[in-house]
Amino acid sequence: MGKRNFSFRFVLTGSFLSILLLFTLLVLVSFLSLFSTTSKMQARINRYMNLNALTKEIESCRLSFSSYFDSLTDGPSSSLMEAAQLRGGLVRSRLVLKSIGEPAMEDGEAYFTHRAILNGLEYLEKRSFRVKETDYVEYYRLLKIFDYLNEYSSSDYLSYAIANDTSAAHATWVYLTKLGSGVVISTIVLFLLVILFLVFFSGYMSKPIQSMANAATQLTLGNYDIPELPAEGPRELASLEESLNQMKRSIKERDELARELYEENLKNSEMARNLSRAHYQALQAQINPHFLFNVLNTLSHTAFLENAEKSVLLTNTIASFYRYTLDFQNEVMIKEELEFCRLYLVIQQQRFGGRLRFVIECDPNLSELFIPPVVIQPFVENAVVHGLEPTEDGGIVRVTVLRDSWQRVAVVVQDDGIGIDPSGRKKDDGGRVHIGIENVYERLQVYFESQATVTVERASQSGGTRAVLLFPARRERWA
Length: 479
Known about the structure:
The protein contains nine helices and nine strands. It is an alpha+beta fold. α1 runs antiparallel to α4 (136-220), α3 packs across α4 (136-220) and α6 (309-326) runs antiparallel to α7.
């Protein structure tokens, strides 16, 4: 199927979870917004309650101070109890004031009122216990401070708080109104999305069913040329559509097969003749290499009888070279491939004369490793044909087999000629492209399971080409 189809369970579960997620997000956002608003309202209520508690504590401290002053004439034991009660009230007053929280300096009067009450309480803590039983002037002065603090907390501070909270309460009311409208709108949008989903899902389900019904009607009428069903809808329906397509093709093929049997019988005789002809040509192609090899042996024997030693050497070399290609295998030893390269270079020396020299070196421990056949010779041929042939003085071709620093087998083919295109491509007169290097690379990749590399680069700035084949050592034949 071209498209990815989902099952009924996936579609229904995914749709339900999507709607549930949207609804949960809506409820969660609404709840968090409402919780934040109520928290702010509760904070304002707590501040009013703390201001009321502060007023009561200051009033209680005033009464405790009066009792403490009166007890000074009754003796130390009585005054100590009253002093402890007064000290506790002042401490509680400061704690209640701290719980209210200090307003910011930008709040102006509220900030200074808060600081005045705090300074007054600290002053009373220092001075209330230093008053003498006969110091009525100090006593009444401290009582006046208690009255000021009581007025600050019960009147001024509370009025500032109410004035500031009025605008905040209005903003809260506006926000709650908008929140309610947003919840209503979101609920309507969610409801519309559910309706759209139901419309889409009904079409998603009914379209493939209707297509299958129409296709079945056409098949019963013998019309097998109807278009293929697109395999749409849930996976189960898509599977049914594909099965219906397959059934239509099977019926059509069976109907056409009956009409083609006669024509097929007529073609069988001609096909038999063509097979016989192809078999003969295959046998002929198999005979030709052996015939050529036998001809080379005959030429070598004749040259030997005529004492033509150079012709005997060349003919035997060509015969050995050709035998290597005739006995083509899936893999050979490195020493066999190097011998094949040597035969090629000996043949080329008969053509180039003294212009061509070569050196073949191989680590004895590597000579019996296995490689694919004809993977070194193409690089030797490139070195001769593309590197040395264009030069007037010729040059030397060096083939070296050794291990690199990573213990891989390295085959290096280097010449001191003019160099070749590193891509290994060269167009002949017919415009065809020789891709010997790419062919070698692909065969090495398959044989060594993508662990081989082939690089072709300039040997030096003055010229020459170096080809390096790297691959792991294989001492056993490829299964």
